[in-house]
Amino acid sequence: MAALVGHGNTASPSSRPSHRWTTLIWALLTLIYQVWGFNLDTTHTLHKLGDRGTFFGFSLALHQQLTPDPQSWILVGAPQAAGQGRLRGSRPGALFRCPITPEEYDCERVDIDGDVKRERESKDNQWLGVTVKSQGIGGKVVTCAHLYELRQRVSKPSETRDPIGRCYVLSEDLTERDDLDGGEWKFCEGRPQGHEQFGFCQQGLSVSFTPDNNFILFGAPGTYNWKGEMRVQLFNQTLLDLGYYDDGPYEVADQKQLNAQLIPVPYHSYLGFSVDSAMGIMSLGELTFVAGAPRANHTGAVLLLKKDNVYRLVPQHIFWGEELASSFGYSVATTDLNRDGWTDLIVGAPNFFDRKAEIGGAVYVYLNPFGHWDDQARPIRLNGTYDSMFGMTVTNIGDLDQDGYGDIAVGAPFDGDGKVFIYRGSDAGIETKPAQVLDGRDFDVRRFGYSISGGLDIDSNHYPDVAVGSLNDSVVLFRSRPVIHVLREMSIDPQNIDLEQNNCQGRDGVCVEVKACFTFTAHPAHYSPHITLVVHFEADTERRKLGLPHRVNFLGRSSLEPEYTQTEEVELHRQLHPVCTTAVFQLHENIRDKLRPISLAITHTIKPQPPRRHSAKKLEKLPPILNVSPSNTLHSEVNFLREGCGDDKICQSNLKLSYQFGTRPLNSDLFTPLPKDEYDVQVFSLSDQRLVVLEITVTNMPSDPLYPEEDGDDAHAAQLLISFPNTLSYAGSRIPPQMRCQANSNGSQVECELGNPVKRDTKLKFSINLSTSNITIETTELTADLLLTTISEQPDLVPVTAFAKVVIELPLSVSGLARPHQLFFSGTVRGESAMTSLEDIGSPVDFEFVVSNPGQALQTFGSAFLNIMWPSELVNEKWLLYPASLKFKGHPDTHCSNTAALNPLKLQSSSPDEHQLANHTVGRTRRSHPEEEGQVMTKGSVGRITPDVAASERRKSLKLDCLLGSARCVLFQCPLHSFSGQAVFKIDARLWNSSFIEEFPTVSALELLVRANITVKSSIKHLVLRDASAQVPVMIYPEPGLADQSWIPWWIILIAILAGILLLTLLVCILWKCGFFRRAQYKDKLPQYHAVKIPREDRPQFQTEKSGGVHKKEWATHWSDGTS
């Protein structure tokens, strides 16, 4: 950037290094001051105090006289001041004039009408000083006593007192010098009295002068039963001297007719409670009068009036309040806020209330729509705090900062100790955020802001000042500081940083020179103070906002300053005279961020002047202040030369990420991905004690190989940020040499630098080792948040969550065996009632189920159960396998369910040694089936049949299984309490011999299945059991010879044969009797043939086939069998 054109000195970067620490402190103080205020000075205020209880400060006005000697005053009303002279002993009120000095008690009482005619008037509690106004420089002053009383028939029972009010006009030196001066401004005197007319007129509650100073305005809110009235009266002595007496006076009810019906507000509206006037409200060049009526229609109203004829003020527009009892119109003011040539209207409503929004008072700003007012006008509403009475006073304070826009002040005397809010005008109309807030607490004043006066330059610095009154008998004068507008420019050399080129003078490294030039303008043009600017250079501001380290070092900084800042001073002696200063910074070596530009911020402030001793009678000259707009900070940046970013020098990377969880045994490089479920989600088993590894692959390749220039550029400062939940933590990594990973103290976050830059067509594969020590049984998933970052342009980088499902696999298993595992049935059929002992049922068999738990106790996960599907009956409800007893080796409190199904017939063994005999029998039968004892039959061994059974192989075999529906089962459910190791369940049973003899006499072999499994009842949803089931087969064969004994006896066969022969004989006899065997009879005659000759004429004709000739039959034949 080019330097500002003009001659100027360049300050040395190292000038006055010993004073830089003081410069830095002053700059900080200046910044703090500018944050909290604008150009009203709050450190050199003037305080004026009055007697306690006099309401000194109830009203005030800034006044400046030119003759006989130039003098500035603060005129202060004290409506409860005690009387003097003949008024001693009463409180008529008073007007005080206070000189512009630092003294607090040097205010003088203005001599106003110290006489009283007690037979016709009363001045006790007349509230003289309730209002005070000044025409401005060299103008007149008016103050009023709105409770001044006219008395009639004094000291008689019929005495009347009428508070009509009166006003006093004084010349610029606060004396009576011409015919306009004096206290005869009481237009309600001599008119009909009583509250319906003018008996409670209360003239002077509000008073004002027109901008051209030709008229004076009086408000009389008690007129016409408190309907109110406003009177406009000619006030130009020159016009009076020229004989212009027909211009007024004007009243809303017509000064001649006194017709209350002409006033467009109802009774008790208090019209005239506030008054003002201005040009350019309804039309340019026309004077418009403004009157507030805060009780009109119970909401309040403001009337715009104009002179209609010689005596009447005619309403042109009425603004109505929006809320009940808001006192809309309590105060009014006019000014041009947006500098469009039209006067805008400001209305106070101090009793506006909104409970939800905590609003206590409001000010309505009506921007002038070029004179076209209508009912749809939407004002800007400024809101006060709860119970603050915000808007009790609104005042046009002139152009405080001389920016061409009018400014206003709003009083809120009940906001804490009282506050005054300064609002600046702007092109938009008004800045709704106050430019400055004056707090009475800072000046030890209560009810601060009850009255405000401004718009007059008291200290002759060409900026208007503001005086603020209170109900605490004190007044504070705030003077405006001159505002300067600083112009600045910045140049940077070089504009682009080449890290390969060392350009620092006298040292190695890369340096950048920043040059800033300053000048200023102010109002007025001849104002040229000596200004010292404190210039603060700051680099890498945006990067440090992100919490990243800076990359530069200013070479000319002081030892008290950080590396990334440097502070200099610039001396400005007059307007539009530029002065420059320079700062040089050097880049750190081996910086990682080579893509993000180095941001620069140059902030300038005015160096505060140290306090000086000053005279007690002379005001100290105020120093200037910087304008709040534009910002006093100038921003710029320095870019790096970018390589690997294509022809457009814009790095558009295309980083992509993929991942997979896996395991790696200790001391091994073998990576095995975790298995996936049916939803293609990886599954991690909690029983797996191997190291969990997160394998990550990062690529930077063009998204479209046909158009590689679109993306895939170098990814500068590429990083991968990994965040783990509480269940996982960083336990190491296996990364390529160019990468570096670093974890925080607890291993919950890992930052991996992928490369600076990650070149085009790069593929990185690395793995992060994860510790699973914090995984609990409540853990349902493994997650890791992965976020790729780069300072290259790639807006589609979003966090990716690596996910794997966690299951808890219980290491429970169940196995079973039957002793013996082959049984035989034989003998005779016996009914259930014939059973007297267990031995009567059939062959004994013992089932043993073993539950193994090599892991931790089961109570950690929930309640586990062993379920045994016991085939007790056939489908036809005949006994199949009779359970005699159940025994458990393990926890003593184990009680299985459905114990009623154990030995339901309550049979006992006939002999204690019977079981041993049974085992001997079993041993005998095993000689035909030479499998080892304890071997569980499997599906493969079922097909091996002994030689004795092989003889019956031609007959069928069956399977008895509850799942197949060939048997009916009883469920035995046994709880598995906390245990580790093994638990053994044993069931003693008997094969029901009679059922097999009856149902399966011809079956060669039967397979009986007893099933068992383990179930877990737990709140842990991801708990799984694998292969926690078993089936125990028992082979059952009929005894050899049982099938032969089942043939039909010979005598049954003989009887069957004889019965068949008898039945055949009987059938033959019946058929014979019915003639079934009788032959059919025919007559012994032969068939006869008769020939009859037919006459020629009766012969039928026929045609032969060959010749086609026609012949006649000569004979007719007829057959007869002799039956007819």
UniProtKB/TrEMBL annotation:
Residues 812-1039 form the Integrin alpha third immunoglobulin-like domain. Pfam families: FG-GAP, Integrin_A_Ig_1, Integrin_A_Ig_2, Integrin_A_Ig_3. Residues 908-939, 1100-1124 are annotated as: Disordered. The lineage of its organism: Eukaryota, Metazoa, Chordata, Craniata, Vertebrata. Belongs to the integrin alpha chain family. One of its GO terms (cellular component) is external side of plasma membrane. It is found in: Membrane. The chain crosses the membrane at residues 1047-1072. Residues 480-643 form the Integrin alpha first immunoglubulin-like domain. Residues 645-804 form the Integrin alpha second immunoglobulin-like domain. One of its GO terms (molecular function) is integrin binding. This is Integrin alpha-7 isoform X1. The keyword Repeat applies. GO terms for biological process: cell adhesion mediated by integrin; cell-cell adhesion; cell-matrix adhesion; integrin-mediated signaling pathway; leukocyte migration. Keywords: Cell adhesion, Glycoprotein, Integrin, Membrane, Receptor, Repeat, Signal, Transmembrane, Transmembrane helix. FG-GAP repeats lie at residues 41-107, 314-375, 376-432, 436-495.
